[in-house]
Design goal:
The chain is an alpha+beta fold. The protein contains two helices and three strands. It is 45% helix and 18% strand.
């Protein structure tokens, strides 16, 4: 995996997410967004579900996960947490 490409993907997705957060808050508060190429692919109740969906859909591993909250939370390059 190209770590530079992954880092760029995460940074760009985080920027997109922060710019559009207000539209996600009301319908998805507390859920986890799966992001790729500055778009939300889906919302999930648990971070492990979002990570599993990302791994299934994107074999190159270029995606990120962000919790929908009014406080900034950066889950980093990977989220392997499963609840």
């Amino acid at each position: 995996m190209d770590l530079a490409a992954l880092s760029a993907e995460v940074d760009q997705n985080f920027d997109y997410f922060q710019r559009n957060l207000t539209q996600f808050l009301r319908p998805h508060l507390g859920r986890f967004a799966l992001l790729r190429q500055r778009h939300v692919v889906g919302f999930f109740d648990k971070p492990g579900e979002a990570n599993a969906a990302g791994a299934r859909q994107f074999s190159d591993g270029l995606y990120s996960i962000q919790q929908v909250t009014d406080e900034p939370v950066d889950l980093g390059l990977y989220s392997n947490a499963a609840y």
